[in-house]
Amino acid sequence: MTFSIGCLGCVNEYRIVAISNMLISLRFNDIEYSKEFLPIRIKLRKNKTDQEGAGQMIKLTTKTQAAIKHWVDCAKIKEGVLFRGVKNNGEILKKLSPGQINRIFKRLAAAVNLSKEDVANISGHH
Fold first, then answer.
1. Angle between helices 13-25 and 98-111 (to 10 degrees)
2. What does the pLDDT average to over 40-55?
3. Is the dihedral of CA 69, 90, 3, 97 positive or negative?
4. 3-state per-residue secondary structure call for 39-96
5. What is the rounded CA–CA span in Å between residue 102 and residue 87?
6. Other CB atoms closer than 10 Å to residue 119's CB: what's the count?
7. Residue among 18, 25, 24 at smallest CA distance from 1
8. What is the pLDDT of residue 11?
9. What distance in Å separates the CA atoms of residue 93 and residue 80, rounded to the nearest whole number?
10. Which residues are within 8 A (CB) of 55 and not within 5 positions of it... i.e. 6 or more apart?
């Protein structure tokens, strides 16, 4: 599974909700590490083809490995949810909300110069 920022404009509301739910559900213990302590695979807990939540291990790209390692190290995450909100003052929250993911998607869409109308239409709600 790959998600391209450049493709954000073609992501419909269902996909945004699905991606949001997937990101929120990821936990530190879902990461499989190499001997060098690099995150090499991660367990996707639930998606549209796995409603029971048995999960599926997916291989991470080198770039994603580095990004996850950097985040885990900087946020000092040792347990619990993997992705967490960050307040303007730098305080790291215990979890990430769907609304925060929606705002992140909107910032990414604006950063790749999608029209203001397209950015405004990005929503995490059905």
1. 120
2. 74
3. positive
4. EEEEEECCCCCCCCCCCEEEECCHHHHHHHHHHHHHHCCCCCECCCCECCCCCECCCC
5. 15
6. 19
7. 18
8. 45
9. 12
10. 30, 43, 44, 45, 46
The predicted pLDDT at position 115 comes to 84
User: Could you tell me which of 58, 92, 99, 62 has the C-alpha nearest to residue 77?
Assistant: 92
Indicate whether this model's pTM tops 0.70. Answer: no
Which residues are CB-neighbours of 119 under 8 A, at least 6 positions away? 106, 109, 110
Interval 56-91: pLDDT, tens: 888 988 888 888 899 899 888 999 998 888 888 988
Tokens 């190290």 — which residue?
73
Query: Structural domains in the chain?
Result: 9-121 (1.10.443.10)
- In single-letter form, the type of residue at position 62 comes to T
